[in-house]
Structures are given as structure tokens and as C-alpha cells.
Write a structure and sequence with these properties.
The complex is a heterodimer of chains A (149) and B (902). With 149 residues, chain A is of the alpha/beta class. Chain A has six helices and five strands; from the N terminus they run βαβααβααββα. Chain B is built from 25 helices and 27 strands. In chain B, helix 1 packs across helix 3, helix 3 runs antiparallel to helix 4 and helix 6 runs antiparallel to helix 9. The longest helix of chain B has 70 residues. The N and C termini of chain B lie far apart (156 Å). The chains are: A alpha/beta (149), B alpha+beta (902).
Amino acid sequence: MYILIVEDDYLQAELIAEALQNEPDLTSAKINRISTERQFRERFEEIACNSPDVIIMDVMLRWTDPAPNMIEPPPEIKMEGFHRAGLRNEKLLAGDIRTRDIPVVLYTILEATDLEGELESPRVYFQPKDSQYGPLAQTIRTLMRRKVI
Amino acid sequence: MSVVPLTATCVRKVVDNYLPQRINHLSEITTDKLASKAHRFPFLTGKRNVHLSDAYPASKHFVYMIGQLSDNPGMAKSAQESIQPDDYLAEVVSTAFGQGELSGLSEMLKRISEAAHAYGCIIWEVAPGSNLESEPPKGHLFVLAEWFQDGSVFAEHDMPLMESVEGAVIISQKPENVTNVQQDMGTNSNPASRRARDTLNFQTICAVPISFTDSKNTKGVVSLYRNAPYPFTEEEFARIRQMARLIPALYQAIRDRVSHKLIRQVNEVLHEADLGASGKLLLVDEMKRVWNQICAVVAETFQCIETSIFMEDPLEMEGAYRLAGTTWNQWAHMKDTYLARAEEGTTGWVLAKKQPVRIVNLENFERDKSIIQREYPNLRWNDSLNIKVSARKALKLNNKFRLPPLSFMAAPIFRDEKVLGVIRCSAARRVPYYFADRDLNLLKLVASQISRFWSNWLFRREIEIEKQAWQSLVNCISQLNSFVQQELQATTPSMQHIFHRTFRVARDVVAGADIMDVRLYDADTQELYFDAVYGAPWKKGNSAEVKARLEQRFLVNDHPPVHPLEVQVFHSGQAMGIFNAEREGYKSSTFPETERIIVAPIVVQGKVVGVLDLRGTGSQKFPAHALKVAELLGQQLGLYYYLTTAIGELRQTETELQRREKERSQTNEDLAHQLKSPLIQAHARLQAILYEDKINNVRLSPQYLALRGLISKAKRVSMSTGLFAELARESAVRIEPQRLRRLTSDAVLRMLIEAASDNELLIEPYREIKFRVNRKGFEVLDGCSVYVDPDLLEQAVSCLLDNAGKYSFPHTVVEVSGGLTKGRSFYVSVVNRGMPVKQHEINSCKQRLWRSEQATWTTGEGSGIGLWVVDNIMKAHGGELLITPTTSEGITQIRLIFPAKK
């Protein structure tokens, strides 16, 4: 099993990975992490070719890490900012035949009401961030079962 | 050869006229022979050598007459024979062409008389109203012109057609030579003829019919008289008939000349007035001078005692025709204003009927009233000039002398259908004493010249007034806008103030508007009600009446036969005006004295919310542009109404928002405090665990360290939230004095090292950002005292380190150091190599919610309040947040500077 975590807080990402790998049925899962929106775009081909079974997607993501020669974000991202970066990533996935069926769990500090009207795809699941990771693991299991069926 | 009768008067006139001026070429006669008759001709005494000209025809008559006088038949005969018939005619013609006044007709008659050796000559004209076709013919004759050797004035105007020689000639259209008037029935059968005979003492008449060249071919007769018993010879009769044939055409020539001269003079006066004004409007006094000049030239032409012009000035008083100019020297006592009513007399009649009037002799007005009123129905004569007395004064005639005829004529001055004024002439000083139709036609021409000038002047004045009014309006609107702008800054802007200010503008711009109001629509009752009023009439009556007037309401959804004007405007959304209440049948129930009214809609966002009502009660009519002005004011009021309402609502919203913001700030502050307390405890307990592990030499758990970093971050965010709320409410961070502690190097180092460690732990390991605290500089704290609120210092430091961690480039070591500035202040410095801070961004960095564009690319959190909070913390300490722009090497330094005491 292959889980991709898109999360810009590395402590958070570590906790998620650790918690999931502590789940008996997910111990052997391969877990990768992407930390910025730019990285997600750069690695999109890789994701398409080697599709994860599930993507755990943060909603608020920075565009990039500071660097002397930073690549500017596209105009629409400049305009919209970081607040809905995860949703933009999800749209990219939905727009590609190779990735449109990958289940996406929006794992965010935001409330479901904050994203009202923005969660339209049946492939996308909302899961609020919590100190307990059991619900997240449960959601992943549910998704995996559906995929098998 | 006939003997020419010569009287002393005749000779005197001949000599007076010819001797001094007209003798150019000389033929000498001696006056010795005149000496024997010197007692008859005293004026010749001493004149021994009288030179006569034979080049000038007139002198031949003189020779003839002198020959007769001096018992020198040869000389007389020779002179008479040398005078050819053509000479008489040429003389008459040249005399006529030399005349520039109507009285010049007398000169022509003089020549005729002289040519026929007559005592005098009269041209009679058939009076208006006469009927030559009736059986028997009815009517009478009047004297058009006359000349007598002795200067007698006859000027009859009621010589009957029947029973007079002159009438008989006109009726028969055959010349007549009455050799002995004593035996002629026609000259004795009526008082006028007898009066003529007695006054002029004539003994023989020669009368020839003529037809004037006017459109009616008016009939007349030329009569020559002799007061000596020498009848006109056949030769003279024939000559008179020849000359009489010329009279109508010559008379017309004189008239044309006079008419042309008058029209030219009037044109010159008006043209000069225009030139003198140089494109500007003539002032009242200048206009008066123009009118007086016109009156003068008209009076000179018609030789009348009085010529007056009455004009209406619509701006001064509509319908009142005031004296504009006159030749009447007693103008101060004359009626100076006329209304267009027949009861006002002849002048009022002309104004009312828009028709000219001509009266042959005012003296006989009452006698001839029925005949006059047949032509001019209901015409009255009120004798406003007391004409008989005034004419005597003007002509310097005492009561022994009979007044000449007092003829009158007046012509309306109008443009299209509108009567602008009237010009009138009364009582001629000289012949012809009667104003004929020809004169009236000429007066009408002058009236039309005046009409063009006055219309043009009124139009220009209207334009000028309109221009000034619009300029004034623009200024007023500008001032009104400023006023409204100020009013809108008030806590509660008042539409009442704005309405009243607008009324003042309307009063200044729409001259004559003396009652005003604004009526607004009450949606609940569907009525218009008075919201603001202006003008003294609103206060008329007792308090109950005033109240009742103000409390009136006007239903807009009922169905009466006719809605009030205000309701009509409310429905149509179009401005409406009534400019003559009486003429348009308008009657106001609130103010019956209303003469004119304009109502304009007040429209807000396409919807009529009320109306502006301007009324005038006085004589001053509204200017032409008043409707447009009212419309504009209505639009302005709509705009002000909208702004006032919108700003009022905004103010309310703002107040509500401020109240809510305050509540929220308080809640945030409260929550931040509630959060801070357990975080502090959690931090403290964790510190205790870590300290114990360290003492026991147990390896520090990464989880614990991460936990401490997270708790520190949570503390910082919590505190920032509290400070943010506090700053939103108080505008400054307050430090309670009891919270100030003296900063020691140990304490500050411990805090910095821990903060550096916590921040380093929170950063992605792959970015390899390290923090290094340089201990050495902090030793300065041992030599000076710096007081800080430890929590706020920790907050400020954490914020700087957090920023350094977030914005540093990979592989950067963030240097933290301390020391004293040159000014001996204590500083904590954070230096890194990362995203640059440009010079122009220094101030922005300290602004609330400001983030550089690049900063938004590299963080998935943050709101831009960090440095703003730090800046306020430093200000609260009397210190400074000093941001140094990034150097060319990419180094950025930020310092916290605290005041230090030695």
C-alpha cells in the first residue's frame, strides 16, 4: 500500500506517518511526503505514473521554501494565496485521467463548514485534524475496501 | 395786365425773404419812388440802392411786386412777362424737394400763392369718416396745410362738405373760381365758411380738386385766396390748376423724405445705442436716454408737443407699461404707468387692442365720441395730460387765441402677438396740425423699429441674466456642496439643514421665488408631507393656522379629477411650471396669492422621493431658466438625500461594527488569557521534566523537545492574539510597572537559547537552518540596568526567531547576539541570510497585516501581525524595533533596542 502525505508541517507529517504505521494493517504501508504546492506540481508526473492508493492532503500549504532564486507561483496562485492550495492540488488530480480516481482525504485544521461548496467530488473525503489518528486510519481503511470492491 | 394786390405785409415778407439772402446778380433799381409810399413801408427807409437778381426766379416776382408797388408798370410788366409758366412749376417743385419737414408743405404753398399772387393757400383733405358716395355726401374737411402772407393760422378741421366752396369742388371734382365770395352762397352758408371768410377776410377764391397718392386716394382741394377785390384771371386760374396737379406727388415726396429721415434718425439712435454699449447691455439710465432721443426725433418729425413711449419690462412688472421716454417737460405730473385696458384711456386702449389710434382733434373728443367709437369701439379719452391747458402753455398761447387742433395718434409696439409697449404723439405745433393715416403709418414703422430693438435687448438681457444666473448657480451649488460635505461629516447629518441651505440658493438664483417647500413621500400613508418650508407666508396667521398649514398632507394614490401640481410631478418625475396663475387658471389652496409656481422632482436612484416647490407671489416673473434651475436643484437634493441617508446608515453600521469589534477583541483577549494560563503551566511542567532528565543525565526525549517547541509556539500565538486584541482596542501595549524586571545576562541567555532551540526544532530538517546564540555580548547587562516585561521580551524574541526560521535560505545559521549600541542602549540582534527586506519595505514591515509578496509564497500560515506586535512591544518599553535593509551580501539584521541605564 502506498500513502502520499501532502503536508507542509513536518512534525505533523511525522506524527501522521508514525500513527498510521502503528496501525496493524498499515504497518507495511509505504508512506511518502510532499511539503509544498510547488513540489506537488513538480512531482505530479511521478504521482501519475506511480499512483498512491490514497493521498492525505493538507488544505493550507505554502507554495515553496525560501531560496535565493525562488520560482514564482502562477498568477492564479498569487491571487488566491495559500489558503486553498490543497484544493488546487486535488483539482489537478481530478483533471488527469491517470490520477482522477485516487482517493483524496482532505486532512485539515479547517472546519467542514469552511469548505462548504468546495468539496464536490465523491472521491474526496474530509477529515478534520485531531490528536487522535484512529479516525484517519479508519477512513483510509474504508477507502481501501471500496477500492477492492 | 392785372393789378396785383400788394399789402404792407406782403411786401414786408417779400423784402424780408429776398433782399438780404437771395440777391446775387445785380440789377439796380432806385427806391426813390418808394419813398412816396414810405409811410406804408418803413422798412425800406434808408435803402437807396437795392440790387435785384434776375438769375433767380423769385427775384422776378419781387421785381414785379416792386414794380407794382413803385407805380412802375413797365418794370412790373417786364418782370411778369419774363416769368414763364415753367418757372412757376419749377419753383414749386424745387421748393418741395428742398423741404425736410412736414411743415415744409407750407413753403410749397407759399410758392404757389406767390405764383398766383394770392394772399394765401390751403390744402384741404376729406376727414376720416366722411362719405362722398352717400346721397347727399356726408362729412367734412380739415386743413392739411396752409400758408398766408401775414402768417395767419386758420387750421379748420370741420368745414362741411356740403354748403362750402371747397366741399362742392371735391364733390364735383371740378375746379372753381369764385370771383366774389360775398355773393357766393357756399361761402356764407355754414359757420366754418363764415369763420374762414371773417378770419381771413378774403374776397375771392380759386379751388382745384386733388387726389392724394395714398392707398385710399383720399380726396382734397387746393384753395387760393385773395383778400383784395381782384379775382384770379383765367391765366392765373390755369396756372393754379397746373400747380395743383403737382401737389399730391410733391406732398408725397416731402412725406417720403420726412419718413426716410425719421426712420434713418431712429435707426441711428438705436444703432449708436448698440455701438455705445459695445456688446454689453445698456443700463437703465442709458436706455432712458435712448427712448428720449427717439421721442425727440419723432416729435420733431410730427412737430408735436408730446411724444411718449411706454414700455413693459417683464422683469420689473409684467403687464405694466411704464413711461420709458417722453418729450413732455411736465413728465413728472403725467400718468407714468398704463395697463393694457381700454378703461385706461387711449393709450391703454392701444395696448389692449393691439391697434393704432388716430384722433383728429382731442378738443372735440366728447362731441365726436360716437363717430370715434365707431372706428375704435369703447375708446375713452381721460385727458391725462390736461391737454388744453398744457398745449396753451407749450404753444405760449393766451386765452385770447384759439388753440390749434389737438390731434393724437398712438401705435402699439409689438413683437409677434406680444405687446411690448406703445408710442404716442399729441398735438402738433405747426402745420399740418392733423395727424393723417400717412403719419400713423409712419409712426407704426417707428414702432416696429423700436420693437426690434427692444425685443433684441430683452432677449440679450434674458441671455445675460440667464448666464449670470447659471454662473451664480454654479457658485451656489459649489458652496452648497461644501456645506453638504461639512454636514455629512457631522455625527448625524441633517437633511433639514441641507433643505434650508438649498432654499437660500433657490432664492438667490430664481429671482421672485418667495415661498418654498420640500415635500417628501410617506410610504406608509402614501402621502406627500411638508418636510421643510421657507418664506414669510408660512408664518401668516395664528399658531393654529400655521400648524394646520404645515400639517397638510397630499394623497398621491387617490383619483381626483385633477391632482395638485406637486402630486402630478411626483407621478411623472418631470419638473412642471405655471408662470401665470391667472391665465392658466391655477389656484393654490395653501397660498391663494401664488402667481407662479415651479415644482421639481427629488429623485433618488431613479425613484421620486419628494418634490421641491418654488412659488412667486409678487409682480416679478420668474426668469426663463427657472424651470431648469429648479430641476437641477431637485436633482442635487436627490443626491444629498441619498448621501445623507447612505452615510447615516454607514455610520450606524460603523458604530455597530465598532461595538462588535470591541466585543470580539474582548473575547479574543479573554480567550488568549485563558489559553495562555494552561500553556504556561504545560511549558513549566515540561521544562521540569526536561530539567530532571538533564540532571539525571538521561538523554532528552525528542518528543519532549518538540513538545516544548510547540508549546512555545502556541504561547507566542496566544500572546499575539491577546496583544492584537488589546491593540485593536487600546492602540498601544500597556505594561504594568509591577511586571517590569531587570534583565540579567543569565535570564536573557537562557530564554534565547531555549527559544533558538525550540525554533530550530520546528523547522524542516532538510532546510538545515541552525540558530546560534552568541553569549559574549550579553555580559554588558552586568554593567547596566535594562527593565523589561519578561513575557513581552520572550514574545518579541520568539517572533524574530520564528521569522528568521521561516524566511532563511537553506543552510543558514541564524546568529543571535546582544550588546550596547553606540548610544549605550541595550540590543538583541537577530541576523540571517534569507528573503530580503528592501529599504522601501522597512516601514511596511511594522504595519499591521502587511506581508511581502514573497513571504506569502513561503508560508502556509501567518497573518502579518508579528512585527507589528513586536514594534508595539518595543514602543511600550520606550525602545525600538530596528530593521536594517538586507545587504548586498544577503544579510538581514533586526534589532530589539531597549533603553539602558548605567
